[in-house]
Amino acid sequence: MTLPQFALRYKDFSQADLQLFVKARNGRRMRKNASKKSLIKELGALDEAATFPFMDLPPEMRNLVYEQILTHNRFAGRRAWPAILRTSKSVYEESKSIFEADKVISIDATYRCFPRLHGGYVDLKGDVKFQDMLHTLQRHFERDLGSKLKLLPSIGSLKIKLRLFSIGPPRGQDMSFPKIKYFIDMLFRPCRGLKRFEIEWRIQDGVFDLDALASLVAHIRTQCVARGIALQLKDLPQSVEESNP
Which of 200, 191, 136 is nearest to 163 (CA)? Predict the structure, then answer.
């Protein structure tokens, strides 16, 4: 089948040309007195029924086809048709990255700060503990998150909600921003095809050190600029936004 947007504009051709098109397609001419309208209708029907050896197309053209049928655009009313992935192993291997890159991963990360020891839970208490907790943090990431996100190498969009709040009286020095930086870096590392990165902030007043938060935002911006990633920050405190234009 030839998609309408890629079909020839048959009405721009003469009747003689249309007759030649019909003969080239099915090996026979229509009657000599066939109207232009009937010739166009016949060619449209031939387009609908057309088949060709797909794998004989150049790789660039196959990728265009994959992008048409494996990506969706709800605003344009276009759906994705992932069934093509089951056609053959070769089609699956060369098209799966296009299909996966069209997905968006959304992560909701909550960081709680405990101003005092609370039931022995001190994982996020104070920056001084960061180096001591690095091995444990990495193990938790790989077990609880990294191992479940097999699509990260080919993902195109990543959305994160960062919630920073305190249990008990808020003290900014207790929020471990290096741990948050490490979490984001761990996500960035395997995202080799990332094009868009969005962070939505949910921050309790007084729970953060303004300078530490500004430094974290600057680090994220630097990482995105270096890799050509479009960054969007939502609901970032105005004072931090102004310090990171």
Answer: 200
Produce one character per residue of 20-57: b if its CB has 16 or more CB atoms within 10 Å, e if not: ebbeeeeeeebeeebeeeebbebbeeebeeeeeeeeee
pLDDT per residue of the chain (245 residues) written in tens, 0 to 9: 565 666 678 888 888 888 888 888 777 777 778 888 888 888 888 877 777 788 888 888 888 888 888 876 655 666 777 778 888 888 888 888 777 766 655 555 554 444 333 333 333 333 434 444 455 555 655 555 555 556 667 777 777 777 766 555 544 444 567 777 877 787 777 778 788 888 887 776 665 567 777 888 888 889 899 989 898 888 777 766 666 65
